[in-house]
Structure formats: C-alpha cells, structure tokens
Design a protein that fits this description.
The protein is mainly α. It has one domain: Orthogonal Bundle (DNA polymerase, domain 1). The chain is built from seven helices and no strands. The radius of gyration is 12 Å and the shape is globular.
C-alpha cells in the first residue's frame, strides 16, 4: 500500500490531505483514479459528505492530465462542474 500511496502523492495537485480523501473512497493508485475518472471520484467524495470545494474536482482532473488545476481552461472547469452536479440525480 505504501507504494500506491506515494504514487498518488507524486501526481500533480495532490497532497497528503487529497490522497487521504481518495483512499477513503477506495482510490489507492493512479489506475484507480483513471478508471473512476475525476467527476465520479468527486461525486463519491461528496456522497461521503466530505467537505471539498470544486477545486478538488479540478485538481483530480488535472492530476489525470499532469496539469496544474489552475491551468485548466474556464470552459473545461465549467464542463466538469456541470457534469459533476448536473447528472447526479440521474446516476443515483
């Protein structure tokens, strides 16, 4: 598990707090995050009633792209938020 833990810490945008949140939702490696996707990971976090801002959504997506979350375009950020919040009722 330590190897997987450090693997997540090596991703852009993710610190110890973010990694601990990811582990709480069952994401223990880059492959887990890639398979789940940023939007679904964010939804799982919110479903667990863990308090995070939209920056967590951007950070997760940026981690998958190896891009700092602040470098994501405003349109992409808006699209991520729309997907994360707009579809929640349909996927429940």
């Amino acid at each position: 598990m330590a190897t997987q833990h450090s693997e997540l810490l090596e991703l852009k945008n993710l610190g110890m707090a973010s990694v601990n949140i990811l582990r709480a939702i069952g994401v223990n490696s880059y492959e887990d995050l890639k398979h789940l996707g940023a939007v679904n990971a964010y939804r799982r976090i919110k479903d667990r009633e863990i308090s995070v801002s939209k920056v967590m959504l951007y950070a997760l997506h940026g981690a998958l792209l190896d891009v700092h979350w602040n470098d994501l375009s405003p349109d992409l950020k808006a699209s991520l938020v729309s997907e994360a919040e707009g579809d929640q009722v349909a996927s429940a």
